[in-house]
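Researcher: Please translate sequence to structure tokens.
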Amino acid sequence: MILPGIGYTDKGIELARKGVADSKPDWRIPYYLAVTYHLNKDDPINAAKYFDIAANTLGVPDGIKKVSANYGSRKDKREQTKQIWTGIYETTNDEIVRERAKNYLIHFEIMDLLEQASKQYYSVNKKYPSTLDDLISARILKAIPPDPFGFQYEINQEDGSVTAK
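Model: Translation complete:
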């Protein structure tokens, strides 16, 4: 079970849908299909459908049932995505996939940390920082943590949100 690579989302979905329909029940096929709909297609309806199929498949781990049951209960896509990667991290036997999931969790933790620091900066200065370096100058952070994928973080001066580029 893998997530499709860039440019192969539709083929991956087609293959996984066939796997759900034609192979012996295996919770991983609909689970990873749901993840693909969530991450690559931004399609919560199909994601929820396949999370539900995964959750009701014999032998599904409790952590995956929890992810499936809670899918859509969070309005924040980042929180929902962190929960999905946690489910992958906790259930995979593939060390490469586990490392990827761990790195995504670290990536999102860093973004959350930077947004919290931005809010702290706002509470003192009544404006959000212009750059992440302002968080260091204000002694809120000692350094900006490096992203495990090499992305650069950017701060939105209007609301303090953080994105990765």
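Researcher: Any highlights?
Model: The chain has two domains: 9-91, 101-164.
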